[in-house]
Amino acid sequence: MKNHKLKNVFREGAITTEFIANSIAKHQVKTSIGAHNIFLGQVRADEINAKKVAAIDYTAHEDMANHKFHEIREAAFLKFDLTCMHIYHSLGMVKSGEICLFVFVSSKRRKEVFPAIEFIVEEIKLKIPVFGKEIFEDQTHQWKVNS
Asked: Which residues pair with 112 in a beta bridge?
């Protein structure tokens, strides 16, 4: 198994539908791929203590986080027969309803992509030093607790 290049997974602001569509479209020329799976994390308008979340302001220890993302990528490539993988996470302000996490995996066969996505997303939630400050409609805020 070859080691893959360390990538910067962070994008400023929300991950747009155009960016997601372009990422998918670029794979049409890779005709050895038979399956793709995508996870999209979206900011929820949770109600907490009678206040509604309007946005999340994401920050991260970027160098450390990129190394942790790289470790997760390498572990997933070892565990699953994947052709390629892309992970993108937002930094900065992302409004409720917008996409903040985009994970895209590809393989020759569909049976690899389903457990791979679940593994990757769970590892991200457990290990990545990304922090979200929930911004409420009244402009008050609190640090988000992952669930």
From this structure: none
